[in-house]
Amino acid sequence: MKKGILLAIASAFTFSIMNVFVKAASVTIPVSEIVFFRSVIGALLIFLLMRRAQVAFSKKGIPMLVLRGVLGALYLLAYFFTIAHIPLGDASILAHLSPFFAILLSIYFLKERMTRGMLLLFPLFVLGAMFLINPFSYESYTVYALVGVLSAFLAACAATSIRFLTKSHHNYEIVFYFLAAGTIVSLPLMWNEFVVPSLTGWFYLICIGVVSLIGQLVLTSAFTHENIIVVEVVRYIGIFFNVFWGFVFWGEVLSIYSVIGGAIIIGASIALSRKKTPAPQLKKVLT
């Protein structure tokens, strides 16, 4: 299996673990506060990694780096808000609408395209997603669901900017701007609703910061090795992971449709990894 595909699957699994901690923490901690600590912990850790790897901050491309950071921060706020208010599986399904937006954005801005093989496999991902959505019993068509769709669009925008930035910036720098922006954006939002976390709450927040940073590094690396369309579509497997965790920890029903949908997505991911994609040649940015 190609490295980019493996990294995309690994990032989906890592972020699904982060989602578990986010949903658990949101019971007692406001979403803006979760985003703040998620961002500030990650920013400090990535800064240390940059120092250790002797990665300097760029003097060019700052506006795009800032834009990527702001898009990522807004995505976090929208996604965590959705996770806090509807079942984890439903929130994940909505967030994984991002490939549809990513395809349009990457074709327009990055001039990427889908090969015939990708086009033939893409309906399998849609079919798998439909099994997981199980529209006959989906009950989250509320304002929370609309925020979930917004998070998917923002995620696609952020993914497109990452793909663009990896051509000229180190992965660590891209992630740092994302986390720094998340810290700045969430700080005023949590100012009037700050809650002192319990020991358990601190544990959740620290885990969110560390696990999410790992996931972000893996995802950013995936975009340096593979076409944005492939990465975003393969990440559909994250739906299956999140539905599974929702069942294990909160008793959210894992239906036969979820099992079938997850199996289809996994099979399609493996098949897609064997297809050659027209990803442009990128300079090596991760050392």
TrEMBL record:
It is a multi-pass membrane protein. Belongs to the EamA transporter family. It comes from the Bacteria. Residues 3-133, 145-272 form the EamA domain. Its main location: membrane. This is DMT family transporter. The chain crosses the membrane at residues 34-53, 65-87, 93-110, 117-137, 143-162, 174-191, 203-221, 233-250, 256-273. Pfam families: EamA (PF00892). InterPro entries: EamA_dom, EmrE-like. Keywords: Membrane, Transmembrane, Transmembrane helix. It is found in: Endomembrane system. PANTHER family: ACYL-MALONYL CONDENSING ENZYME-RELATED (PTHR22911), SOLUTE CARRIER FAMILY 35 MEMBER G1 (PTHR22911:SF6). It comes from Litchfieldia luteola. SUPFAM superfamilies: Multidrug resistance efflux transporter EmrE.
